[in-house]
Design goal:
homodimer; mainly beta; seven-stranded antiparallel β-sheet; three-stranded antiparallel β-sheet; 12 strands; 12% helix
Chain lengths: 168, 168
């Protein structure tokens, strides 16, 4: 990997302040299951209902998603830091599914049974930029469980939601 | 506005769990200043250093950004709920800058002086999808202030970061 520019280093430092819910993106392709913890996810449009994810070319999910695999975006619960760790560490492929309670959708896509929310997405469009691919998913099905308590990543660590703030 | 489909309604419900730092996106175009609170922001690539924002066609920022205006993404501090409210409420144009401490960059783009981080972006690429436009900004300058304490939006409300969670 080449050295990052000074602007890239500053961007990385600044992004530690862009707190985000942690998700695990999953798919099944050619019979194999894939999972990756991520925060580069954004809501996109309500018509059609859609969201986007940004995937590094070096990620194992890049090949199946570039070949059009549908995918699931699972928002982790604050108790799921172990799932996030399993899906972002050294474990690869099936080993990532040893942590957490995974079930298959009708289409065979893995989803986390007790995720805060799971969005089952059809892979409908994409755009390459720099080291990454922006993949657009049209949301076809949504699963919700439990009350709102997402796992948050900021400043290089995991957090739970804190106190509510009222608008002054 | 047409009625949302049942999947869109479920997506909206699920997205309440995708906790996110609140940012204010700003630009100057034809001498006018624009500001909009948003959460549809994502890191994209480190080479080149870049991020993306998703802008509704109905937003006032849509026209200047579609015409290539450069922009600034300001991550709000937990004390900035008033700035978020001013930049997402009925106030339009200059009135949005009456709340918060705004200064101009050398290029004339407004930035929030005490934002957690401000990313000054060159408007380099875009893609339209559904009701929105994905705009890619190449980050040219980064400003950081204070310690890490972002304003978070989840479940329709503002929060501060809570307790850190250690990986078990």
């Amino acid at each position: 990997m080449s050295e990052l520019s000074s602007v890239a280093l500053s961007l990385r430092e600044g992004l530690r302040r862009l707190a985000k819910a942690v998700v695990v993106i999953t798919c099944r392709h050619d019979g194999q299951r894939y999972a990756m913890a991520a925060t580069a996810v954004s809501e996109l449009s309500m018509e059609p209902p859609s969201l986007l994810i940004c995937i590094n070319r070096s990620a194992s999910l890049h090949a199946p998603l570039s070949q059009g695999a549908d995918f699931c975006v699972n928002i982790l619960h604050s108790m799921h830091s172990d799932v996030s760790a399993a899906c972002s560490g050294k474990a690869r492929g099936e080993a990532r599914f040893e942590t957490g309670s995974w079930i298959d959708t009708e289409e065979g896509c893995p989803r986390l049974a007790d995720a805060q929310a799971s969005f089952l997405c059809r892979n409908v469009d994409a755009m390459d930029y720099g080291t990454h691919r922006i993949v657009i998913g049209q949301v076809e099905q949504v699963f919700l469980t439990g009350t709102v308590s997402p796992l948050i990543y900021a400043d290089g660590r995991y957090f739970e939601l804190g106190n509510p703030i009222s608008v002054t």
